[in-house]
Batch of 2 targets.
Target 1
Amino acid sequence: MNDVPPEQILWYTVDTDRAVEVLKSDRQTGLMPEQIARRQAQYGPNELQDMGGRSSWAILIDQFKNIMLIMLIAVAIISGVLDLLDFRAKTIPGDIPFKDTVAILAIVILNGILGYVQESRAEKALAALKSLSSPRVRVIRDGKTSEIAAEALVPGDLMLLETGGQVAADGRLLEAFNLQVREAALTGESQAVTKQPQICLPEDTAIGDRVNLVFQGTEVVQGRGTVLVTNTGMQTELGKIATMLQTVETEPTPLQQRMDQLSQALVTGSLILVAIVVAGGLILSGWQNFRDLLEVSLSMAVAVVPEGLPAVITVTLALGTQRMVRRHALIRKLPAVETLGSVTHICSDKTGTLTQNKMVVQAVHPITGSFRVSGDGYAPEGEFYSVETSSKSTDRPITVQDHPDLHLLLLACALCNDAALQKEKGDWMILGDPTEGALLTVAGKAGLQRDQCAFQLPRVAEIPFTSERKRMSVVVERMKAESSRTTIIPQLIIPHSSSPSSLILFCKGSPELILEHCQYMQRGDRIEPLQSAQRDRILSHNNQLASCGLRVLGMAYKPLETLPSEMGEDEAEQDLVWLGLVDMLDAPRSEVQEAVARCRTAGIHPIMITGDHQLTACAIAEALGIAKTGDEILTGRDLEKASPTELEAHVDRVCVYARVAPEHKLRIVQALQRRRNIVAMTGDGVNDAPALKQADIGIAMGITGTDVSKEASDMVLLDDNFATIVAAVEEGRVVYTNIRRFIKYILGSNIGEVLTIAASPLLVASGGVPLTPLQILWMNLVTDGLPALALAVEPAEPNVMKRPPHDPSESIFARGLGAYILRIGVVLSIITIALMVWGYNYTLTTYGVEDQRWKTMVFTTLCLSQMGHAMAIRSNSRMTIELNPLSNPFLLVAVGLTTMLQLLLVYVEPLRNFFGTHYLTPMELAVCLGFSVLLFTWIELEKLVMRFLFKRKIED
Ligand code: ADP
Ligand code: MG
């Protein structure tokens, strides 16, 4: 049979039988374990080779595109030229020529490499995050349906496709039900293609027309299918063009963009400053001071620019994503880290996010009475009890077979179902939708196993469930031979039983809707017309169940003449026979109530959006604290009637939206956004994608979400839990607060440096510039940089979730940040200038004009002051003594380390030569220390004064 190697077969030209044969697979059982192992060894994992993200070179080159670094390079060159002139004039023994130039260039390169390392790590971290959300697929292997990682697929596997899934490998379709696939990733065509397994195509068929194949990376927008995997990994059509894909999204965050603007502004500002100083100096004193002026201005230029800042921001954001993933929130787009902190509304699905999504059927209600169901979880073990008030024997289980209508209702549960029940390690689990899992379980309790039922009544057609239709139907065929034998299938009593039809349609969905489509009802073993009084009774029963927070489904059936594809969906679902209601409990998640309360104190509005009944929604919303009794509820129908402006008027008050379809979600987001809110919105289905894209934070479900929704999202909830969203918001706020904190810290110091340098020519006549560009770089990168990194991991302050969200469009300098930087910069410079004046006169009188140790005192004081600043800035409202010093051990280490490094610069001879510092006596060092403590004291006093003035703690 192996005349043609499988790799060379054009799969769209062969029929399904031949394809199965070539790949030595089996339509029913799939591959056997030993085949799988062999093929995994032969073909390797089903993954695209890593072409991820920017190339290393691109990342490295990007580092040097930074305007701050370009300016530093210019400074290096100018100071090199100055050195060259000096070198010609006089050679000072022991002096290293071009020291500053070399050192600055070394720092530029080092900074570039550091930035490169940070960014590559951040990029890798994001790539790792992405693989965490790598898709899983359902396959048939060894006769069993199971879920495996997409990487484990091999040619010959039977892969099951369902709505919303991403196709994980190339394959030949064996079966398809209404299967529509969007192949934009491959063909660029956004219109979905309807797939047809039966046909064979000619060899010259273009890729977009190969309707009997599916391709990796494409999306199932509707329907189901079974696929024989033919190619995996790099052998797939997508693999052949894989270079364009797998990009990790590292778009700059709004803050990073604004920081880029800021650094440009600072560079421009510093160039203007240089021009002013040089020009002013020239006008005042002429050319003979040009050299000094140039030195002053170079130092100022270096001092203004916060060289260390971009790296610290990158690291902080990356650390933020890591903390979030530890709390089960997976960030897909970096800007989300920041935006999360400003979220004002969280719109959440009910089922699975606010509730546990562990459905258990409580009772079934055919026309003739209600039956309570016992048993826990998904185990199909339990009994049915009649809850008829008239009956006295409520504690004795009934026999389902004695109640034909109940039996038929349960059969509908088993057949109109796409889920599967499995026993794994003694636990019963479901594969698929929990709502359907619950129905399988209850049918199983009556001895109706899906597989057995489906064997006797095989499915021939289906109309799938969508959140818009809120119902689903299947058509099964009665085996003629089977019907005479005694089987587990009840003898169906169907009108026109004389007709040759052996097709039956089962339908389930939202009770109101199903009931609208019913003309008859099943009472016992008879079919009766459905009177309007009975209709009302069923509806009020439905409302009564829903208002207890139960999820209620309606069931119906009818015999069919022809398959629905030939007669149209709507027609098929008309004139149904009503079977009854099934109610199931989906308990609220226990941790959600507290998370909702945290939202409230944090000024965030939690909103429930659900396809479920308004009364069910309301009951659960009240239990969770999302809504109060009597709150306004909007339904999908209300939304349809309301104009955008009307909706806008309501949107601030409504906390619960019920019976909505995915397209309504989009309208809700838009209305909220027009009211200038920042909206986070959850979603799981294919049709949720537009709303997820529109929302400021689109959140996909990690467990139940479709690949399509994940692709559209900014964040994925690994545990599908509402509480995780709130945790992510908290982390987002912490990240934003910390970024603001070290911006204050770094820029405050820069202003201090600039003012000190600017003051020196005025105050210390002919003393020269107190700080060389090299020393300033050292401060900006090392002695400011290390503590800033430590401040980036400062734990949350107690009030992060006790204040309203901030407007994300606010300036970086908003809420007092700009004022703080100026104020602290001025205080720092006053302290340093005071020290400088004292130190200069002291040096002059003690050591003489030639001695320059006052410069080292200025340098040391600036550095040590910043250590105090770092300690004090940990909290804006609490005094440092009120904080636990060990809650940020990194800061202690950073401050200790930096102080030590600074001392090494003063006390180690070679370093002293290199950095141009001088030896300080212990007394002189003590003076520096004394001055340095002043800044810390000032900040602490500020906090105290603010506390007394405003009788409240300052906001962070
Ligand atoms: P949500 O996920 O917000 O609870 P859905 O859109 O999933 O809402 O469901 C909306 C309604 O559709 C449900 O209240 C139920 O009546 C019906 N429904 C849900 N799942 C199914 C299903 N698998 N088959 C048929 N009907 C369903
Ligand atoms: Mg749902």
Target 2
Amino acid sequence: MNRTDVFVEERAGTGPAPRAVETNDAAIGVPLPHESAELHVSGEATYTDDIAEAHGTLHAALGLSRHAHARIVSMDLDAVRNAPGVIAVLTADDIPGENNCGPVLHDDPILADGIVQYLGQPVFAVIAETHELARRAAALAKSDDVVRYEPLEAILTAAQAKAAKQFVLPPLHLRRGDPDAKIAAAPHRLQGTFEVGGQEQFYLEGQIAYALPKEMDGMLVYSSTQHPSEMQQVVAHMLDWPAHSVVCECRRMGGGFGGKESQSALFACVAALAAQRTKRPVKLRADRDDDFMITGKRHDAVYEYEAGFDERGRLSGVHVEIALRAGYSADLSGAVATRAVCHFDNAYYLADVDIVALCCKTNTQSNTAFRGFGGPQGALVMEVLLDGIARQLQIDPLDVRLANYYGVGERDTTPYGQRVDDNILAPLTDALLDTSDYRARRAALAAFNARSPVLKRGIALTPVKFGISFNVPFLNQAGALVHVYKDGSVLVNHGGTEMGQGLNTKVAQVVANQFGLPLARVRVTATDTSKVANTSATAASTGSDLNGKAAEDAAQKIRARLAELAAKLLGGSAADVQFAHGSVSVNGGAMPFGQLVNAAYLARVQLWSDGFYATPKVHWDAQTLTGHPFYYFAYGAAVSEVVIDTLTGEWKLLRVDALHDAGQSINPAIDLGQVEGGFIQGMGWLTSEELWWNRDGRLMTHAPSTYKIPAVSDTPAAFYVRLYENSNVEPTVFRSKAVGEPPLLLPFSVLLALRDAIAAAVPGAKAAPPLRAPATPEAILDALDALRDLPDANTAAPPAANPLTD
Ligand code: MTE
Ligand code: HPA
Ligand code: MOS
């Protein structure tokens, strides 16, 4: 099969028809397959562990802390050193430079020094002849004779940390207007609490790094990372070397999901340290359980809220406190908490509001980026709050949502002061209401529930508005390097990383489109810090916005030089030169692209160029939490319908209709994949993935046997995912919109549909079902019990007949 073959999988409701922006071979807006699709399915794609090992390669493994918080009294590592195959054992004392791999504050030791701050923290590294022997020796960390500890008091949960006033960063506080007065004066009020669990990234390829020493104190580090420049930086600091001595390369990741934005650093550092000490190549690959025990996850959160509202449920004043479990160090928690603050509004106008976010310091893994980056944790509580208002007023939660939507030209300023000037919430919701048939199904559901004593159905529509840009303005920059070789083939390097999201495919489409070439003529190479310097993480969904623009800039510069030459050769003006279908034409004449390139080489025209992009408009005042943090917003909405078994708490997702705004999609096949994947991943977070630490602070759910991510069988049989026809109001690359993270918020509709079904089981209850997330069967039964115990609940025996079994 040829790489340029176009697959258009026809199936019900998979979005708009392919729309070609330009009629050349690398059409934009066409559902081309992922650039590595064949390699992925055939198993030929090279991940870090597949790189051919250099002669003399050694393997590292980590010895982990057995306590959540303890002083290290002594270490006697002789037994480890004497274990079979062991070449070296390294501790913090072996680090020549800085013992830190934290991205913002310097509070993340690579190897524990003096104290351990969570159970699972790496204390020493074993370097051995094989992976297996290294792991066996590292497992001796479990013995009391090897590391002796003096346990200290451990704080494990956000609630405990809040009570003890232990934070990794100062609280964030955003206030607009006078919410207290508005709440006091409101005709209706609601107070509540809520909690949502964390989430393990569960990338299929675990954390891994492979370091090879080079001449003159140099180091090449292959790292499975979203942030090669940061890996270069932390390795250089650790070795006390200049950055130019370290190269970090990443061809692709088997998923990152935020978990490799900062936390690939520990693995890169240990591999590089071991390589520097032994003068041999060293690979460090964490197995799944160690990966779970060592690395941070999505921040779980506990909330307190209070709101005042009118008869229609329109909010007049709101107060919320979001207490996030940061773990033992700051990592990216400050930016995560800021995004939580900036997404509490979700799709709704909040005139008078008070938002507090706390980064609670606990003796657990240091929580980090995960798809949505605090945005989901901010917006979820708003949806729960609106659901509570609807239950209290006994009206459809959809109508409460609609009553609070941001307006167009009025009621359109976010709490942080940015105007929502690209609002498409109303037309997008109307389109979804239409295709999902929400209102008719709501009525049908009520009829079903009246007849069905045990099984209860629920439905919910939830919207998403997600701000696009890094909320730290300087990170919104990118670079690229484009080479056109003498034969007319093109090589692209950019600062972004490929983790399955299709970034390289989109960037290749953009560059191929500039030159009017088929996609097969453009190759995107591994991300490499020696090619593009000082890159940002591939994160905040900005990968194609930033790197697409940078690569386009580079290609445009080369194209301008080629156009000038073509005009000289063929006559006419450079501005009129067309690049399409592999040929270059102007003034009635044409020549193949390759021929023009060769002529350019002989005429000594530069055939390669750098490119750069910095997102316009973004600014942010971190003191007042106001500004214009986002270049634009991406929107979406979903309707989910569930059925629950009120005796067992089991449930099933019956149907999903999702409509998502990817602007003018560069590649609808890839974007639909992102929406589907984001939906199922978010559903896993909210329903089945449960992280559980025992009272010693040991994470007990550290493998797929106990931690349940959604499987393909959890995908609803009726899963209608569509892209909303839209165009970015901002001049992004081909007016597309970022699509990586926003769809993760669409399955809020699943959680709210579960609450709807629970409410249906207890008619008369005027409180929302106190359903926590993840909504496991246990949580569903707990919520049913709690709701039945409320004074308004009508616990009269339901009708005996079950229509599903009749
Ligand atoms: N899709 C796949 N297949 N694998 C991933 O690891 N990460 C998500 C999202 N989609 C991810 C993914 C996250 S957290 C982000 S920020 C974006 O992709 C990053 O890529 P982009 O900016 O190029 O969209
Ligand atoms: N997303 C991901 N990573 C980040 C962000 C963000 O918004 N801000 C700083 N680092
Ligand atoms: Mo994504 S959480 O910004 O890596």
